[in-house]
Amino acid sequence: MSDNSKVILITGTSSGIGKASSEYLAQQGHTVFGTSRYPGSYPKPDGYTILQMDVTDDTSIQNAINQIIENEGKLDVLINNAGFGIAGAIEHTSIDKAKEQFETNFFGTVRLIKSVLPIMRKQDAGLIINISSIGGIIGLPYQSMYSASKFAIEGLTESLYKELHSSKVQITMIEPGDFKTSFTEKREIPKNANQSKAFQNTLQVIENDENTGQNPILIGKLINKIINKSNPRLRYTVGAFDQKLAALLKRLLPNRFFDWIIMKHYKVF
Ligand SMILES: NC(=O)c1ccc[n+]([C@@H]2O[C@H](COP(=O)([O-])OP(=O)(O)OC[C@H]3O[C@@H](n4cnc5c(N)ncnc54)[C@H](OP(=O)(O)O)[C@@H]3O)[C@@H](O)[C@H]2O)c1
Fold it and tell me: Architecture of 7-265 per CATH?
């Protein structure tokens, strides 16, 4: 094993970005611990360990982290990846569903960070990578709760980047565009949302963008590069050229013009 090999915890590795990244990072010689709420439902992964964890449940988080520390004596890198999406107009989205979205995507990330920070501070070393989204930079139509949960990740990470500045713990985030994963089939849509033609038009664009999206191994490769940097940036946007361009244009163009481009793309009118 090389000297650069790290002990990595990545949440949500039963499919998609988490699975592809765990496989890639393990191939690079890192000791990888992935997680799933239902690890017994998936074949034993090749090259890494999968632990039971529900990011909405403190006990399962603590048990998994304890197991890593018992086995390895340290934790170098945490990657907060577990997440899912809900879609639909805000009138069709219940407050309970909206809270579920935040419980996993936002508070799940907060719980993991609070659990590993004391360990990393004591080690005087550590790296936290939060998986945000281009939907955390651009408010996506009919994905308001998903976008809001990722905007919250952006705010959290931006704040912690400053808060951790004088420590040896580093934090960064990855903002993926569309990647082909199980995210699309697992998206939760309230039944009455489908009554709206406008929503159906937009949903078709969303699903098409995802189904023709990039290979998630690209994110594994990016994570490996970030791990090997002495001073990672706050943000890394990854995806197709037009999506990376959109993230840049959001910062450069007047809001009204930029939002018109986004609405046109998503067939909002
Ligand atoms: N695909 C894209 O285009 C895209 C774009 C931007 C950002 N992202 C972000 O990338 C991350 C990974 O998504 P993906 O595209 O790889 O989707 P995916 O294939 O559906 O994978 C999601 C993973 O999250 C886990 N998960 C969901 N709820 C969980 C919970 N409460 N506790 C623990 N694990 C949970 C799932 O594991 P179990 O069900 O086995 O527990 C699964 O392994 C998400 O944060 C997503 O928002 C994806």
Answer: 3-Layer(aba) Sandwich (3.40)
pLDDT at 1: 44
The domain spans of the chain are 7-265
CA of 242 to the centre of ligand 1 (A): 23
DSSP 73-125: S---EEEE-----B-S-GGGS-HHHHHHHHIIIIIHHHHHHHHHHHHHHHHT-
For 20-70, what is the HEC assignment?
HHHHHHHHCCCEEEEEECCHHHCCCCCCCEEEECCCCCHHHHHHHHHHHHH
Closest CA to 12 of 149, 76, 108: 108
Q: Is 182 a catalytic residue?
A: no
Residue 225 pLDDT > 90: yes
Could you say which of 132, 133, 147, 149 is catalytic?
Answer: 132
Stretch 84-99: mean pLDDT: 96
Across the strands, what pairs with 170?
127
Residue list, ligand 1 pocket, CB within 6 Å: 11-18, 36-38, 53-56, 81-84, 104, 108, 131, 133, 176, 178-179, 181-183, 186, 210, 213
Residue nearest to atom 11 of ligand 1 (CA): 81
Whether 192 and 253 have beta carbons less than 8 Å apart is answered as no
- pLDDT band at residue 41 using 50, 70 and 90 as cut-offs: very high
